[in-house]
Write the structure tokens for this entry.
Amino acid sequence: MPVGTNATVKALTVDELKSIGYQLILGNTYHLHLRPGDEIVRKLGGLHKFMNWNRCLLTDSGGFQVFSLAKLNKITEEGAYFQSHIDGTRMILTPESSISIQENLGSDIMMVLDECLEIPAPKDKVARSIELTQRWARRSFKAKTSRNALFGIVQGAHYGDLRKESAQMISSIDFDGYAIGGLSVGESKEVMYNIVSLVAPDLPADKPRYLMGVGDPIDLLCCIEQGIDMFDCVLPTRNARNGSLFTFNGKISIKQEKYTEDPNPLDSDCNCEVCRNYSRAYLRHLYKANEILASRLNSYHNLWFFKRFVEEIRESIIRGEFQSYKERFLSRYNPS
């Protein structure tokens, strides 16, 4: 899922996202609640109409942003007390209010409110946290009044036994899908892969499994292998704005001087509009000149790459050739 934090995937129109082929994008409950306000969005017909997107939308619960952006005052059984990062307004986010905000937005998939912790964190603190997250999950489940789908979230920091306990507790509630949260927050790849391999088998196989905030191509490949179905990340568009572009041979830093006179397309194996029409030299020129078009073209290409990448993975699974596809991809992909 491309990330559309403020009801927009940065630098691209919804028609461009449709032309690439995306069916589902992510909006941010915390940000949209603060600005322009979920009640305003509801009065204007909901998030789909507000942003002119007639395909599916997922909204997160706002929990991660409360812990990562806002000035967090305290966590209680009731909810999270915090101050807005915009104007310092004191607020509280509860499982019930998070669901109410998401129902005002009208997203197709909503997320329960969970407590996000840093990695590493003391084990006794994490043990208390996963129990709170489960109680909040049950409250979220009861608070839902719409037909929107609702996903539960597994937490547990870097402790394998607590992750499995959380997965078993959350999967005991009949959610429409299940997410693994609290990863890709600075832990090592080994820790992330280990947690995913431990947790995925404990989540229902007949419902979507969603790894939140993960978007590196190698991470996607390895976690799909463990049974993960859904991902979101700002990486494709954020990297694009910083001149870091993805190809099937690895990443290219288009700002490098060696591309100044390079007439070749960014990726000769890519059929996107950018690679069909523009050279590496031109893309470098736009970036160095700080032109808005640089962000637009780079973002379009990166999102095209990720869409094609996951389509190829899906096709390899259907053909029963995933392992050989993985080996071929890793043999040519240079992440640096």
